Amino acid sequence: MNERLTLDDIRRAPKVLLHDHLDGGLRPETVVDLAREAGYADLPSTDPAALGTWFEEAANSGSLERYLETFSHTVGVMQSAEALTRVAYECAEDLGRDGVVYAEVRFAPELHTRTGLSLEQIVEAVLDGFARGGRDHGIRVGTLVTAMRHQARSMEIAELAVRYRDQGVVGFDIAGAEAGYPPTRHLDAFEYLQRENAHFTIHAGEGFGLPSIWQAIQWCGADRLGHGVRIIDDIELDGDGLPTLGRLASYVRDKRIPLELCPTSNIQTGAAKSIAEHPIGLLRQLDFRVTVNTDNRLMSGTSVSEEFAKLVDAFGYGWDDLQWLTVNAMKSAFISFPERLELINRVIKPGFAELKAEQAD
């Protein structure tokens, strides 16, 4: 009988991350350092351990809007090129140490202009940090530039995505509170990206339900769904637990539209009640294109390995399940098909094969 995988086991596995926010993954000590350097005096604590605890507790509100308020402090200290480069470098370092071999990390350039940086300077500072961090720590990081859905700069940000797509920006995203800010408000940006053959994902089906998902796919043409956890609302279980998929859920599954699920974050924002009750269990059984992500490593106090470990505990997953989820993510990445295939066949599958062989001995 095989023993259940431990967190240390999982950290050794090659992993892929598609949904991670740069301003949600800072080290607490870095927040304190940058605040001191920038003269930012609004932190709730200048003790790194206490600050890390504060971020997690503030995020555990069950409200997406309250969860998003915690970002005022991380964004507040990321207002210089040097700070942005440092945070991006440390992000690559932290992910590499967690066994992540490919990651797509997103950030909103429009949030970092308070001291006069141009959007181009902001993007270039982040790309520099990811490039150097990736080289030093053996990880490839692709960048997603994000527009805030309650603002009106999505076309500018979409144009940035296209301008820098050969320099490390692999796609575009919109984020922020969903209720009252449907993705169709940014339809011109999505139509532009489609004309430019550019990739994009849309935060949908997290704080709002099926209409958000439907608009993201059918009106805006999203390649992936950021979260998409509320697709479960279009799946009914009968008295025997047998599922019936609605038209939208069937479409999402049939078209293999990737779901960027973030289990811990989904619980914090009220999109799921617990890991054991998280829709990922059923969605995986029904063969949706499920991927596992961190969303905000600081606020959720998590890592990709820890997200996997929670699923192992809740659903009894083994190496085959974790490999399936990882390959799903790699298939869904916004880099070229040959690059995805190379990582799947030369890094991911051999890495899991070695771990399976060790477990069998």
Automatic annotation (TrEMBL):
Q: Where is this site: Important for catalytic activity?
A: 227
Q: Which cofactor does it need?
A: Zn(2+)
Keywords of the record:
Hydrolase, Metal-binding, Nucleotide metabolism, Zinc
Alphabetized GO MF terms:
2'-deoxyadenosine deaminase activity; adenosine deaminase activity; zinc ion binding
Listed binding positions for Zn(2+) are 19, 21, 203, 295
One biological process GO term for this chain?
A: hypoxanthine salvage
Q: Which residues form the Adenosine deaminase domain?
A: 14-349
Reported EC number(s) for this entry are 3.5.4.4
Would you identify the family this protein belongs to, as annotated?
A: Belongs to the metallo-dependent hydrolases superfamily. Adenosine and AMP deaminases family. Adenosine deaminase subfamily.
> What NCBIfam families does the annotation carry?
aden_deam, PRK09358.1-2
What is the protein name for this chain?
Answer: Adenosine deaminase
- What organism does the record attribute this protein to? Actinomadura logoneensis
The gene it comes from is add
